[in-house]
Structures are given as structure tokens and as C-alpha cells.
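Q: Joint fold for the lines below.
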Amino acid sequence: VLLNAMTTELHRAFTSLGKGPVQQGEGKPLPPYFLSYAVSDASDVTIRAQYGALASSTASHQRVADVQIRLGDPKLDNTHGNHRSSAVNSIQLPLGDDREALARTLWLATNAGYGNAVDNYLRVKTEAEVRAKEEDNSPDFSAESAQVDLAKPAPPVVVDRTAWEQRVRALSKIFREFPNVYQNVVMLTVQNETDYFASSEGSRVIAPHQQARLVVFAVTRADDGMDLFRAQTFEAKTVEGLPSEAEMEATLRALGQSLEALRKAPLTEPFDGPAILSGRAAAVFFHEVLGHRLEGQRQRGDEEGQTFTKDIGKEVLPTFLSVSDDPTRTTFEKTWLSGSYTYDDEGQKARRVDLIQDGVLKTFLMSRLPIANFSASNGHGRAQTGRMPTGRQGNLIVTSTKTESDAALRAQLIDEAKKQGKPFGLYFEDISSGFAVTTRSSPQAFQVIPLVVWRVYVDGRPDELVRGVGIVGTPLAAMKRIVATSDKSEVFNGECGAESGTVPVSAVAPAMLLSEMETQRQPQGTARPPILPIPGADLAAGSSMSTKEAK
Amino acid sequence: MSWMSSIARVSGTGLLAASLFAPTWIYAQQTRADAEKDPVFKAVLEELDRSKSQLQLPGFEKPFYIQYRIVDVDDFETKAEYGASEGAQRTHQRIARVIVRVGDYKTDSSGGRGDGVLQISALDDDPIAIRSGLWSATDQAYKTALAAYAQKQAALKQVQTPPQADDFSEEKSLVSLADPAHLKVDEAAWTERVAKDSGLYRTNPPVQGNRADVQYSSASFHGRVTTTWLATSEGTIVRKSGAEYEESFGAGTQAEDGMRLDRSYASNGTSLKDLDSADVFAKHVVGLIGSLSDLRKAPLVEEEYHGPVLLSADASADTLHGLLGTSVPATRPRMGTAARTNGAFASSYHARVLPEFLEVSDDPSVKTFDGKGLLGAYDVDDEGVPAQAVKLVTDGRLQSYLLGREPVKDFPLSNGHGRAGFTAGPRPEIGVLEIAAKEGSSDEELNRKLLAMATDRGLKNAYYVATLGGEFAPRMLYRVSPDGTPMGKRELVRGATLSDLDQRALRSGIEAAGKDLFVANYFGEVPETVIAPALLLDEVTIRRANEKNDKLPFYPPPE
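A: Joint structure:
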């Protein structure tokens, strides 16, 4: 019913708008050349605990329609340049099957969106007349064939709320064993979503998507005021697919121990030498440093960094590395991939894109916004509901033909350090993603924060945890210094924020040895640790960290 | 009428008489031991004791005041549009807010941004989790307070005129334990009911003929019950609860010239029993939709008019809420000035602010008016001070202000009006503000006077404001002209805005007031009530609003 109501109303709107009699004093009518309705029908259950008790538990179901209207022609339309985001008009849609209510709501949003589109189109035309030629004079909208795929909608969310509330609560309670972990949040989100898409080009798509996600976030502070945090996530298609309680508990305990160890770890010193990124760290690194810069729209527009615009066909990575983005994969080995989808948010079929082959840059992540030399979408037009889609990552997968066992990689790190006359190399176990800044006005530094870094000594001393490590230097240069990789890959699942909003993503990469990585001490807060011990600290059983020791 | 107020036309003497009686909420002597039977209080008090005795940074002062407040908010909201549900949301959360003050009552750390820290608190009555949230917020609040205190002492050295009052009032501690409250609503039934309300334009015979003109038609129900636990280092222990319910409807259209025309209606109260029955609410909805057609046909208001205007009690309540409600609370003036307080009444103590025949009071302890629950009522404020009846204006003169625990010159103590949103710090606000005339006039007398004033000034007509949308934006505005009948000839007009409706107009422009009082309940985190009579004003300006008129729909709505 929903898709039919959408299609019928879309047809009525498309054939009515800009076709009426021209009123006096108004220019020629402006019929839209493209109209699409994208409806997200999402059911969620969210359960959140902190300090070992439930903080909230909610269920919701809502529908939101994004109406996209384009006026003019694909060469130049109302979405040109900075007007891009104005072409989407969002509205909350009734649940249920009341056709009249659905149609009328879509009408309201379409009517408002059309007014907006006319206004923006007229401004785009004026701007086009007064400005000099643009660097990239690609059209504004790519030609694509209509897609029709009526999959079965996602089922309603089924979660045993009481049982999961208890589980989330119990997981949060684990941190009571670690009295210096000052804050923790454990959150379960289960979302079953169905995307309905209809366009004036004849596309009619129903695309279901399900994901269960448990996120853990914990914070401590060193005595000198440095804030230290760790995060861990578990993903699966449904809650049943999440790891067992015992497995999660063990992971959380390790997280707690790691924070207690980190707050007492020595501060890092500036260091320039060889380093290993763990698979997880390498995955974050590639997502932030490389992936974002391969988004098609970043090659267009005067404000963008255009890092790779002129590098097609050139070697941008060592030749043993290849990078693809494949949203059609739902798992890697046994791990669920967050960035999977069947159709993108412009109704285009998801597909695997080989971005870099044997070190050579082949293409970009494309939405329907063309750029020089790339005129078509490759199914990566993604957006949060309410935003205009742009080229985004799904599941970024790094593969290597020069692999070694982890032990051999570690031995090579030590050799490399010796060769460079360094007392140790660095092992980056965990890195947090920041935000990759690629606009021209800001330096193209990377915004990844190393969370867990070890010194691996050449003289056989045990590895030493250090804190406060910051990476300096240009990130892309660092990538060219990758000399070998592990034979095992790790998955990083996360949420990625950019201009078109937050979308779920994955990155998969093997551990990597870099011949050189420049690091410094990074400032991370100066506030004193809490004055009194956390309540219940005296009860923290089995912990060696008594509150006396904390002082 | 305003979005938030309710229609409850009542007659009679009003609150001034009712408030002569002593408050009725006096509890049997309650003690800390009674409070500790409540697991939330047990945890709160334990952490409070620990902070009070142990919280100190070496070399710095200990706090002299700590306040813990946990608000349990149980909330249900369901919305519908065009006859179909958009979904419902039930949320339940507890918000903890911690205030730490260093210094002393005369000069303390308050005033900057460092007056409180928030934490999400545990829904489970888990003592360690409750205490952990408070502990974290207390630590942060104490450190912020130390910094703020140092800053304030430095700032005080920069000004010649010393503060006109202490920073914090010393109040008697209070133990008062009301029962916790829980939200019980039939969620499915309300979801269905608002869906039906929002679709009446499609189904109701008298109005469905104009269904194509209705551009939006939305209805919602919102129920919210709160329980607050409050404990201070001074020994105050208060548990209190509140409830508010509201069903609302809004619809809109455009006139032929593109002018947007909106109507809305809400029925609300402190219990579900206060709300309109389904039938009564539906009648209001149908009336509102019908009025959209009338408004579409109504002529534009004249370009500019200066002269007498009659505000209905409904419109008066909204106007006085804006003009008086924001002026009577007293807040600390800027450091270094000799001012008493801020706002329009900063220098009006003992001065005339209204005509002599009007009286104003605020008494939050009055729970009902003519059997209807008043949203602004409460027993104890959010600083643990019992609500007091305050005579604000007698014989037209300002006699007092509304105060929380932040004193101003001549008002060293709170009068129980320190109120706080769930996440905000306390500040003085109105509870149940009543404006009444000593000798009110009937509607007929008011209309007769209105027409007489117009004739005296050689005006062809005067105006009657039935309902307001925004503060000075009439929705139902009538041109009234003499036709020999007492009420005159009333003609609906559209597109007006009111001006010159200010403090000066209140002081010297009110000719008469009605004897019937209207109750306007304002739903919100700090719920408020204003009870007011109709007001006849001597000189108000009415002019065309000249808002931007959007295009009419580019294509017709679906059948």
C-alpha cells in the first residue's frame, strides 16, 4: 500500500507541477524533470545502561519521507553547487495504510519542496550567468536506468526487552570491578528498517535492512588530567546473532583492565620510527585517511581538497595493496559488516567498486553527482534520512598480496627499528576515528586518535603501554610507507558522519607495518581526577586497584 | 486562543477569596528516617552525607551548600495527521542535577554558568548507580564552583557599589514526602482518538465539503507525570510529584491572497478527568475547521487603527502571561549596580503598575479552580521551599515580587517560587497567577463601553480580540460597530497585528475588566497557570501584519 500510494501520488505530482496555466507576471512554467520519494520506515528498540543500572529503554516506530525535486535539466539544475542540500524536503509520514493520509502528507512536502526548488533554480541560473567557468563543469545529475526490486519488507523488531535490559545492565555492572573507570555507557540498538523508493524515472524499490548493535564506551582519567577512553561495538543482523554473554563480558573486562592500565602508563615521548597498525587500527586509518578522500564529490567544487582528483591511473599505495568498497557483502569471515545495503539512498543498486587495484587509483565512490571523467553512479549515494545523498563508503575492504604471520610482522618491526637505530618500534593496537577534514582551507592532517599504543623494544624487554600518542605528518605519505601486512584481517564497524549525515559503515584491513611513523604527545585535558572514590569502590571485588592506590 | 491555554470559562469570585484559607497540604511530621525507607532517598542521602563530610580539594574551601535533585519523568506522546497516526512515544527517564555552592550565604560561587551539573540517573533503584551519577556530577560541580567563586571575588573588587542583597537566602529546612506518581494512560486508545480528531475534516458532514482547503490537520495527546527527589546539605528532604495532560489540535489553510490562517485548540489539566470528553473535543475541532472557512472569507483588517480594544478573558490571559508573568519574578541585578532586580518592573516597587481596580496574586497552593486542575499549582518549589501566596499588586500598586532563594534588595527570603525545568537550575517563575478586578463588569457592560468609547472618539468601529495566536497576533479578531444592540455588530477580519500593548498600556490604558475569569494552563516543564478577566483597553494599535504571503499550493491536494 505504501509504495503504491507513493507511486500514485508521485505520478500525480510529476504530471501536475509546472503544467498549470501561466499566471500573469510569471515566467514560463517550470515542470520538474525528476521527482523521487524515499521513505524510511524504521522500528527501533534502544536500551541504555550506565553505572550498572538501566538509564533508558525505549521502542519507537516512525516513517519519514524525503522528497527530492529537480528542476531545469541534468546539465544544470536546482541542486548545483551550494544549493545541493536544498533539493530534499522531509516530512513525517503516517504509519499504517491510510492512502488518503499518506498521499496528502506527500503532497504537503512536495508542494513545499517545489517552491523551494523554484527559488533555488532561479538563483542557480543567475549565479551561473555571473560567475567565471567552473573547474569541473560536469552535469548535476547522472543518467541512470530505472530500478525495480520489490523485496519483502523487514519484519517488526522482536526483542525480549526485559531479558535484554537485564543483559545490558549486567554488562554495565562489570565496570564496577574497575573503580577508576569513571563513566561507562552500554547501549543496545536494534533497528529494522525498510526503505521504499519511487521516482519519476520509474524506479520502485523496497529494500529491507536489519541491524542489532551493542556499543560500549568507558572513560577514565590519569592523575595528570589526561582523559582516556575506549569503545567497543558488537554487530549482527539481529540480536540473536550478537556474541554470547560470556564473550561480551570477557571483552568488557579486557576493556576495563586496559583503561586501568592506561591511566598508569607512562606518557609518550616524540618518536619517529617504524610502527605496526593492528588490523582494527589500520581499518580505521584507511576509512578516515583514504576512504573519505575517495568520495566522488570531494573531487568537485572549489572548496574541496581534491586530493586524488588528478591521480587516476597513478600509483597511490604500494603495489601489493588493493582497496574496494563492497556494500553487497554482509559478513567478513564470521563478522557482520555494518556498511552493507542492497540499494543506496538514490535507489541505485549496491555494487562492489574496486577503488585501488595493485596500488593504482581506478575510480571514486560515486553518487548520482557526476564529476570530471566519471559520469555515473556506482551505487554509493548514501545519506541519513533528511539529507541529500553524496558518495560515501559502505564496507571498505583493504587486501594485500604481501602478507606475513603476525609473529613475522612483529619480528620485522624489531628488525626495522634496529636498522634505524631506535630502541623500540610502536604497535598501535586501537585507534579511534575522528573526522577527516579535506577542505582546502584546513591542513590535511589526520584526525585519528590512537587509544592503545605499545612500545615494542628491540632488546627483548616486555612491551610497554604508553599513553598520549598523537600522529603527526601527512597521512597519505604514511600510507606509502607501508612495507608489509599481516595475513589476517580485522573488521571495524562504526557510524560515519559527514555532510550527508550519519551512515553505518565498516572497514576491513590487515595489520600493517609502516617503515616510519612520526608521533608526538597530544594534549588530552588537564582536569583533576575525581576527589572522592566512585561509590562502591570499596566493594569492587577481585580488583587490584584499590582506592588507596588511586590516590 | 493560544496553543497552550485551555478553554474553561468560569464565573465567580476567583482565587483571591480562596487563598484566604490556610494551605491544605500540611503533612504529619515526617523525618529523615521516613525518607530512608525510599531506596532512591537512601542512596541520595548517603552520597550527600559523604560529599558533605569529605568533599574538599586540599587548600580550598569545602562546599557550604549541596543540592541533589532527581526528576523521574514518565512521558507519553502520540501524534496524528490527516486522520492517521504518526506514531507514539513512551519515554521514562531520570535526570539528576547537582548544585554545589562554595563561599557563604552572603557571597558565594553562584551566578555564572557553574550553578549545576547534570547526569542521567538510574531508572532502577540501584543505590550504587544512583550514587555514582551524583558523585560524578558533584565532583564536577564542586570544581566549577571553586573556579566561579574565585572569579566572583575578583570581579567584586572591580566594582564600587556592593551587591544590594545576599547571594543565597537562609531558609528553614523542610521534610515533606508526597507519594511518587506513575503515568497510567491507555496508549492505544489515545493514539486512536487523536487519529480520529485529525481526520474530522474528512469525515464530519458540516466541514468535509471544504476538505480540500485544509492544508494541515494535526492532533496530539501528551501526558507527563514527574516525581522529584530533592535533598540538600541543609537537611531539606522533599519528594513531590506532578502531572499534566493535554490533548491538542491544530489546522491551517491559506486565504486566496496566500495569507496563512491557523487555528488551534487544547484541553488540559492535572488529571485525565480535566480533559474534554471525546465528543466535546471533537465539537471544538469541527468548530475550528469551520472557522478556517470563515477566516478565508473574512476581509482584511483596515490598514491602521488606534482606539479602544476589548480583549476576551482568553486573550487577556495570554497577554498578561507575557507582560506580567515575565515582570513579577525578581532576579539578581548586574554586579556593581544599585538596581533592585531586572526586567520591566525593576524599579516599580510600590509604584502603580495597573489601574487601582485590579489586584494580582500568585498562589501555587491553589490546586483547582471551579473544579478544574491548575497546571501551575504545587506544594513545595524546586528549592525545597513551601509555596506561598504572594500579593503582588494591590490597588494597582506593586507590593512584592516572586522570589526563589536568590534575594534582592528588601526581599531577603524566598516566597516559594524557585522553579526549575528538568535540566535547568531554579529561578523565580509564576505558578498560579491571578488577575482580578474588584468590581468586574459583565460581557454586555464591557461591550457597551467599547461601543460608547468608539462613538465618543468619532470612530466608526472598535475591535474585539477573541483569541491570540502569538503574543500580539490575533487569530479571531472582530470589527465591532454600533447597531443599536448591546453587543454591536461583529464582523470577523484577518491579517492583523497588535501593537502598543505594553506595560504602559497596562498601567494607564485599562478602562475596565470583566467579572468572569478564564483559566489558561500552560503545559511545560515548568507548568504555569494564568487566571484573568477580559480587559477593555483605551488605546491599542491594530494594523495589518503584512507578513510574507506564500504562494497558494502549486497543485491541488489529492482527492
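Q: Anything notable?
A: Confidence is low (pLDDT under 50) at residues 435-446, 541-551 of chain A. Residues 99-130 of chain A form the longest helix (32 residues).
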